[in-house]
Amino acid sequence: MWLTPSSLPDVLVVEPQVHGDARGFFFESWNRRAFAEAGIDADFVQDNHSRSARGVLRGLHYQIEHAQGKLVRVTAGAVLDVAVDLRRSSPTFGRHVAVELSSANRRMLWIPPGYAHGFIVVSEAAEFLYKTTDYWYPAHERTLLWSDPALAIAWPAALAPVLAPRDAAGTPLAGADCYP
Prior knowledge:
This protein is mostly beta strands.
């Protein structure tokens, strides 16, 4: 497994060692010992799986209490995955990283607690799986406005985002609840 720091040093691109031949492929998507040795010592408590059509944008979500670390990956299709640093004490506060995750590149992204997270589907459809370090608490969930100019996220211009009402009504960074 190879871990590469992104432009936000705490957000890591994880590239598993893939073993393949004419029959197909195999890789470990999670191995607690190997990830801990690589610096991701997370205790995951929940797995989530979603399927979305082209242009669906989910996010940018976070929990102001019970902050979740997430290990995310795509098992079918492709997404542009985005993490935004919401830790006011961080030198990268308000900055984001965007990484294409797909079933073809098999990359994963480690997003530690303290970040908002979202993605847009860039293929016909995508299946998205992720592990979280804390449970979902709807009362603590917040949504950062995906299109906030202060974030300067370069979402794919060719796609008109399909949004849930809560994502369309997200809060701009200037008014968002953030972490210390």
